[in-house]
Every structure is written in structure tokens, then in C-alpha cells.
Amino acid sequence: MLKPSLVRSGARSEERGASGGNLDPRSSQRAPRSHVVQLARELRAAAIEKRQALDGAREYAWRLYCLYNNRSEGCHSFWRCMPRVLARLAETGRDYTAVRCYDLIATAVAEEFPEWSNQSDALWAWLAEPYERLPATEQFLREAEEILER
Asked: Is 0.70 topped by the overall pTM?
């Protein structure tokens, strides 16, 4: 810690070393914090963009599920619940074919999202997977630091 008298007198560079830089030998290898933060933001934005199409398919399937199963429009915002609904079916020994109009839902999702064309089984398996949240900001910061240290 710097003594107040040293800071006022301008002797700060003596405490930090002859070059005026940090004494930490790793500091020369580290990227500036602003670069790390900016890269972390870009990584997070890319992860969000990648998920948007997938989230769109999940949300669309849930809306159709609500429509065909006589649920109110108020439940539309709970599209992340689809895995729980399908898990409850599995607990009772049933699969997605127990969902009312499962074939119509799969067909409509495939029409809206062509990557799911002719993949009804895979679609329902994916819809049954738990929804994973984006990693915490700290995870993106660690990843950015690792990338910049290479």
C-alpha cells in the first residue's frame, strides 16, 4: 500500500519499480481488463444469438402445445416449462405421443424451423431436454481471459 506522503510527493514510481509498471511478472502477459470485458460481451452476444433460433423453436412448440391442449394464452410466456411437462409424462410411463396433437405440433415446428423437417423423434427428444440458462458473466470473462492469454 502506498503511503499518503509518497503519493503527494510524486515518489509513487519508486514504489512501483523503475519502469513505473506493475511488479507482477504475469502482468505483461495479461490483456488489459477493457479488452477482456469487451471480448466477454462479444462471446455472450454470440451465445445469445446462437440460442435465439433454438429458443424460438421451443417457444413456438410450447405455444402450439398450449393451443392444442386448451391452455390459456397466459401460459405462453412459460415456454421453458416444456421439459417439465414431458418429464411428468415420462414419470407415468408415457412418451411424447401422449401429448394431444403431437404430430401436428411437430409438423408445424418443422414448417417454421426447417432444420426440424422429418425429425419428429429428435424434436421431441430435444424438447424434453432441460432448458439450460446462459452461463454467468464470470464464465464469459474467464473464457475471454483464456482466449486472450493464448
From this structure: no
Angle between helices 102-112 and 120-128 in degrees, nearest 10: 100
For residue 143, what is its C-alpha cell? 473464457
Q: Tell me, what's the pLDDT at 111?
A: 92
Q: What angle do CA 117, 53, 58 make, to 5 degrees?
A: 70
Tell me the C-alpha to C-alpha distance, in Å, between residue 4 and each of 7, 9, 11, 12: 5, 9, 10, 10
Alpha-carbon gap, residue 113 to 57, rounded angstroms? 7
Rounded to 5 degrees, φ, ψ at 25 are -65, -20
Please report, as a single letter, which amino acid is at residue 148. L
Find where cell 386448451 sits: 70
